[in-house]
Specification:
It holds the Pfam family YbjQ_1. 28% of the residues lie in helices and 29% in strands. It is α+β, with helices and mostly antiparallel strands.
Length: 276
């Protein structure tokens, strides 16, 4: 799934006026933040100054795709729609942060809300607090990620402070999605299991496969950012309005990197014992 590029020309006129008043150097600028008081103080303690709240929105109509009644399968058209809608919201939020010359965005929330415009219409909203670093990262370089974009993180202010103190920095939020149709059971398979404790292997395999696809796509995004790992991973299931046999599995987390070239997570060493 291809990510969109942040584009400042995509910003609404009202957003441009609001951001102009928040830019560093404006003596009358008053920052805005959705951080709690404790989070605000810890982000400042970590060396970052909040500039202002940034957001991105996409009102998206999710199309229709029908799965075969008796077959487990990914509904790729719907997977792409759910990914693209979220990506539009995220990239517009990043464009607002870039317009403020921010180094990153902390406390990001990414939500999906049904709207009354139609049965399959929802608003995808990304919102967070743009921050500017007081000093370059240890070892030189910049706080922005390997693609030159402001980093994004859905970690709490407390977790963000802990991450920085431990010698790691966020690269960006990474995500993976999979909309999957879970096959209906045939009557010949249902009747023998009535009244029994028994695994429904067909359902187990479907959910397992769908989760693996979502997780693998999230990991692929992290690899593109040259991340060492992903922290704070959430793996959620949403039925939205598709009914009980079609479900979206959505995974999201914050990709991280070490601040120093010689600082990496110690991986376990394999020890082999050879007899004879």
């Amino acid at each position: 799934m291809t990510k969109a590029e942040p584009d400042g020309n995509d910003l609404a006129a009202a957003a441009i006026r609001r951001l102009t008043g928040l830019k560093p150097g404006n003596p009358r600028a008053i920052f805005t933040s959705d951080l709690s008081v404790n989070e605000f103080l810890l982000v400042r303690e970590a060396g970052f100054r909040p500039i202002g709240m940034v957001l991105g929105s996409s009102i998206y109509h999710v199309g229709l795709q029908v799965g075969r009644w008796s077959r487990n399968q990914e509904l790729t058209t719907l997977s792409q729609a759910m990914y693209h809608a979220r990506d539009l919201a995220m990239t517009r939020m990043e464009a607002e942060a870039a317009a403020l010359r921010a180094d990153g965005i902390v406390g990001v929330r990414l939500t999906v809300e049904p709207r009354a415009f139609g049965e399959d219409v929802a608003e995808f909203l990304a919102i967070g607090t743009a921050v500017k670093a007081g000093t370059p990262p240890p070892g030189g370089g910049q706080w922005r990620n390997s693609k030159g974009r402001p980093f994004t993180s859905d970690l709490s202010g407390q977790d963000f402070w802990t991450l920085i103190q431990a010698g790691y920095a966020p690269l960006g939020m990474v995500m993976g999605t999979c909309v999957y149709h879970i096959a209906h059971q045939k009557m010949s398979a249902v009747l023998p299991s009535l009244g029994k404790n028994i695994e429904i292997a067909q359902f187990t395999q479907a959910l397992y496969d769908a989760r693996e696809l979502a997780m693998a796509r999230m990991q692929a995004e992290a690899a593109e950012l040259h991340a060492e790992g992903i922290v704070g991973v959430q793996l959620n299931a949403h039925n939205h309005r598709w009914g009980g046999h079609t479900t979206e599995f959505f995974s999201i987390g914050t990709a991280i990197r070490p601040l120093r070239a010689d600082h990496h997570i110690q991986r376990p060493t394999m020890v082999l014992s050879l007899d004879g």
